[in-house]
Amino acid sequence: MTEVVNADIVVAGAGHNALIAAAYLAKAGKSVVVVDARAIPGGGVATEEFLPGFFMDSCSTGHTIIQGNPVIKDDSLGLISQYGLTYVDPDPVARVAMPDGEQIGMHLDPQKTYDEFARFSTKDADRYVQMLEDWDNAKSAFATANNTPIGWGKTLDQLLDALPNGGTWRRRRALSAWDVIRHEFTEEHIQAFLLWEACQTFGSVDLPGSGVLPYSIMGGRQKRSWTIPLGGSGKLTDALVGVIEANGGSIVCNTQVSELLIDSGRCVGFKADDGREFHGKDGVLSTIHIKHLVDMAPKEAWGEDFVYGVETYDIGIPLLAIFLVMNEIPTFKGMSAADTAVSSGLAQWPLEVLSQVRDIRDRKPVTESAWTLVATPSLVDPSRAPEGKHTVKLLVPVSHVAPYGAASWDDAKEHHADRIIDYIATQVPNINSSTIETRIVKSPLDIERANQHMINGCAHGGDKGVPFAGPLRPVPGWASHTMPIPGLYQTGGTTHPGGSITGSPGRNAAMVMMRDLNLEFSD
Asked: Does the pTM of the predicted model rise above 0.90?
């Protein structure tokens, strides 16, 4: 006999956006069951003990963007006041080495960042101050648009039109990140630094629609740094699970959702590989990647337009991760360990970055690294490693196809990791065999195996360029978290406003579902 689990709301996938939506619904009095294929909830917001005593963020580490979401800013779910979530803002903010050996350090003190820029160009340093002021005046428009379901309020263009320089912002956000940087800054080291920062979300910085990234990322980091939760990225997940369970909800892991259950044209639940069925009396919420979701019901249930939109959806840029256990702090040439930022890295000159990003999109083998992150969260969070040891995460964008003539990334990953570490050592010489005690390499294939939402190692929910943003995300006509199948709702990185740790898709989906259920939404 089929085992059936009944609840008011059943949720397929336990990423942080799904958990945020589930937490709001549970607090509103709905019985909620969240189901996930992984052994632990959180999706890309997870901290795992890869080795005894060493806790590493398997995907996300920085939580800067979510600081502006009412979930954190107003502590609307009690994650901070009741469930122990604690954030720190590391200083220095960043240290980035250039191809010629020059470095730029960024600090929470804007004057120190100004002084770093001024070493290369006082004109560009002055422009940076203006950039921060301009973002301060515009950021509320972007925050309002991101934290409001599509169609519920003024469009972003309408919000920008209310600004004194609204036309400039409308043009700026439609440009590419590189277009904006090269128009507003002229010195190549500063351009390279700003483009390195703009690459943080693994977007196509050469395509229209990425133009706001230099402003939003620099503005956020100048104010809050690369904000990280003490104890690891998974502490956000732990707090959200705490809210759900405290309000009667439950989390079911190690359970693979295989198909949607449709009754009289309405989605009433989903079925798991083990035969269990999960029925939602009031609704079904999915955070399954839309590329997979569309295969869980007959194509005719979605409609031709929706299927076309899914087929043409760009999954984004893959990444490769190298996790290191080190007995020293990664230290840049000519600097002390105190100069190392939690968020450090190596930059390429802009045209090299653009060329590699294009090659990745074109599915060409790429052996260099357009952007290299050296993240050392144990600098400010000693709970992640035993005394005297450090956890270091190296992230690089890679192609969808394996380099070096390898048949797959399984065959190429260790060789590529060797190459990346040798490259990093040119600027951070103490990353070497004597300081690295252990390394774990995760190729795009490994990343997808660990989390099916990250198709081919693309961890940010899909490209956020013009064809995949705002009312076009994930599919034109279906950007407000409802789906073509009645009773089914969608959240997660494939929905507005996109991936990264923002919490906005989850909160927005909760607002839509609660409206449909005649529940009052309140932060």
From this structure: yes
